[in-house]
Design brief:
Order of helices and strands: HEEHEEHEEEEH
CATH class of the largest domain: Alpha Beta
Structural class: alpha/beta
CATH architecture of the largest domain: 3-Layer(aba) Sandwich
Number of domains: 2
Number of strands: 8
Oligomer: single chain
CATH topology of the largest domain: Rossmann fold
Strand content: 15-25%
CATH superfamily of the largest domain: TolB, N-terminal domain
Distance between the termini: 34 Å
Helix content: 25-40%
Largest sheet: 6 strands, mixed
Shape: rod-shaped
């Protein structure tokens, strides 16, 4: 039940035994000689389909049986609701940051491309409510952030784009140009990317 209903979240491992113990106490059922709830070693619990022949059906027994079924139904409904709300929460968006590619054709810009990669990763890690990975991610719905260093109007510029694999472009950004502006402009553009991902 912990794995299927609660998915292992926000529930103590002994929650089920505690509920079963409460049920047994309410039903005046003994775990050593059970009439209603049987313990199956290393597997869990089972409602007993048949009661011993000597047990008499009385109005109090009928009430106990009704209370048992109502309690079990309540546990199942609450467990299902907890599972629904836990699983229906959307996972945070994932961004995979790729290294900045030096597309200038000039190896002298390699150090600037490497430094821009570090700034891009640092700024991505500052985004709130977003999981960030470098190079790859275990999630298929990850947004891939790619960037390249180019020379635009005679100045080095970083152009960025983010999209899901095979999907449309979700966001683009571009620094104003010049080595001194690149870190500041990357920070501004990454803030805008964070807003796009959270909405």
């Amino acid at each position: 039940m912990l794995a299927k209903v609660w998915n292992g979240r926000a529930v103590s491992p002994n929650s089920i035994p505690v509920v079963i113990s409460d049920l047994r106490q309410t039903l005046e059922d003994d775990a050593r000689s059970p009439r209603y709830i049987e313990t199956v070693a290393k597997r869990g619990y089972r409602l007993m389909a048949e009661r011993p022949a000597q047990a008499l059906v009385s109005p109090s027994t009928s009430r106990v049986r009704s209370a048992l079924f109502a309690l079990i139904a309540l546990v199942l409904v609450l467990g299902g609701a907890l599972a629904y709300f836990t699983l229906s929460r959307s996972a945070p968006p994932v961004v995979v940051v790729m290294p900045v590619q030096n597309a200038t054709g000039n190896p002298a810009y390699d150090p600037l491309a490497n430094a821009s990669s570090a700034v891009l990763m640092t700024e991505a890690e500052q985004l709130t409510g977003v999981e960030v990975y470098r190079g790859s991610s275990p999630r298929r719905d990850a947004v891939v952030l790619e960037a390249m260093l180019v020379v635009w109007n005679g100045r080095p510029t970083v152009m960025m784009g983010a999209q899901r694999k095979g999907g449309p472009m979700l966001w683009t950004g571009m620094t104003a140009g010049g080595e001194q502006r690149i870190p500041y402009d990357i920070a501004l553009d990454m803030h805008r990317l964070g807003e796009v991902l959270r909405h």
